Amino acid sequence: MGTAAAPRRFCRCACFCSENLYVARYGLHVRFRSEQQLRQDYEPILRSRGCVSPKDFQQLLGELEQEVERRRRLGPESAARKALIASSYRPARPEVYNLLQEAALAPEFLAAAEYSASSGADLKGLLQRLETVSEEKRIYRLPVFTAPFCQALLEELEHFEQSDMPKGRPNTMNNYGVLLHELGLDEPLVTPLRERFLQPLMALLYPDCGGGWLDSHRAFVVKYAPGQDRELGCHYDNAELTLNVSLGKAFTGGALYFGDLFQVPSTLAKPLEVEHVVGQGLLHRGGQLHGARPLGTGERWNLVVWLRASAVRNRLCPMCCRKPDLVDDEGFGDGFTREEPATVDVCALT
């Protein structure tokens, strides 16, 4: 009798604790290894953005040291929160924790995914089934979830937000929202969404970015509201590809803006602005520079799924742009593995 294969172990790159630390007050991502290095690398630009006095710099130094420590504790603390939520939290909409059903998905999304998985499917045929927001930047849009499912998911997220359960930050730039793996929605919702529906779509849209080899993800919901996060600075995602779905509610402002790929020296003098459409998802490359304009009124909730392909990132970490220095991590980690998937033709991805 054969034995089951051991589950794959995912890792993060050691750079997670030193690279791309976001300083919201100065609108800057920095590398931080020591006070001397910080001064040497960033003192001129920090001064130009208002970090002028010794007190300003010491405050910044303290914040960066706290962020490094937070990142070091992140894996075990996230696992502890997930365990507590699983044992103690009572959902308001338990049906959203059921295995993803096609009834939750928009007909247009189902049709595009079904076409992408069919024999003879090609990019030209797929593009007839979705909206091309920017051919140059390869940004696309299509409905993802039905309105009833968006409403049910939002009600559950708000119920969790109002509970006394512990909550982790969605990422280093957003302070309000929910990590879906901690809430227990990775396995029933996001994993089948990636494996059954997004994988064939992304394989046709982004074959050069690992779209056909997606093997992990990081999914979270971000919330923008008065008195909380209202906008998002320019950045790129720690992902090969990204799905960003507007869940609601009623709001004005908050449009996304897109520049070039982060590897391409450029300015954001004339970025492409894209308005949110509730229920619809934007697909783009993770390395595409982007941000969010200030919210006007109301509340905006978005589901963001960072889609990762270890066949791509195992060779080059997108955050430090070096071969990753692997550290074992919880769950999907940051999508790195210690071995290449045996079936990947790496040459086809270069």
Provide an overview of this structure.
The protein contains 8 helices and 17 strands. By secondary structure, the protein is α+β, with helices and mostly antiparallel strands. The protein has a single domain, classed as Sandwich (Jelly Rolls). The chain has a 7-stranded antiparallel beta sheet with strand order 4-5-13-9-16-7-6. It has a 4-stranded antiparallel beta sheet with strand order 8-14-11-12, with no helix packed on it. A hairpin with a 4-residue loop joins strand 4 and strand 5. Mean pLDDT is 92; it is low at 1-5 and 342-350.
Architecture blueprint of SSEs:
Blueprint lengths: L10 E3 L7 E3 L4 E3 L4 H14 L5 H35 L18 H10 L6 H5 L3 E4 L4 E5 L3 H16 L14 E3 H4 L2 H20 L10 E9 L7 E4 L5 E8 L2 E3 L2 E6 L10 E3 L5 E6 L2 E5 L2 E4 L1 E9 L1 H4 L12 E3 L22
Antiparallel strand pairs: 1-17, 2-3, 4-5, 5-13, 6-7, 7-16, 8-14, 9-13, 9-16, 10-15, 11-12, 11-14
Keywords:
350 residues, alpha+beta, Jelly Rolls, seven-stranded antiparallel beta sheet, four-stranded antiparallel beta sheet, 8 helices, globular, disordered N terminus, disordered C terminus
